[in-house]
């Protein structure tokens, strides 16, 4: 935490979370699902 700004946040502070990993996971799942439908 000493190398981040998290130590400056108070309880209830709004933060911006990156969802890049979740977006990639959803993309892979939809591609897999589409491949299954085409077979």
What does this structure look like?
The structure is a single chain. The protein has 39 residues and is an all-alpha fold. The protein is 49% helix and 0% strand. The chain has one helix and no strands.
N-to-C series of helices and strands: H
Number of helical regions: 1
Task: Return the average pLDDT rounded to an integer.
Answer: 81
DSSP strand count: 0
For the record, give the distance between the C-alpha atoms at the N and C termini, rounded to a whole number: 49 Å
Name the shape in a single word.
rod-shaped
The value of Rg in angstroms is 18 Å
Number of structurally distinct domains: 1
Main sheet specs: none
Helix content: 40-55%
Structural class per helix/strand content? Answer: mainly alpha
Note the beta-strand portion.
under 5%
As residue ranges, the low-confidence spans are none
